[in-house]
Amino acid sequence: MILAYSIAPLGVGEDVGRHVAEAVRVIRASGLPNQTTALFTTIEGEWDEVMAVVKQATDAVMAIAPRVSIVMKADIRPGVTGAMTAKVESVERYLA
């Protein structure tokens, strides 16, 4: 599964970087393939392991923010690995 995860802490003011960094820290420490962009952090792994990391990342932000909003989008293909990079490589081949 590939999951795009975005967390927005609410009630903490305009600068949310410190709060988002806590979620990203948990995701990176998980050891699962991941990539962070301006809007989402993408995580790849099996359903249970990805969702456990999302819960841990959310809990880390909830520990320092009174409220959070989460957006998630998933591509679920059991047994497929390496899809996070393969999808981008496919597009890049067409651009070359």
UniProtKB/TrEMBL annotation:
This is MTH1187 family thiamine-binding protein. Pfam families: Thiamine_BP (PF01910). Belongs to the UPF0045 family. Residues 6-92 form the Thiamine-binding protein domain. It comes from Nocardia suismassiliense. Coiled coil: none annotated. Gene3D superfamilies: 3.30.70.930.
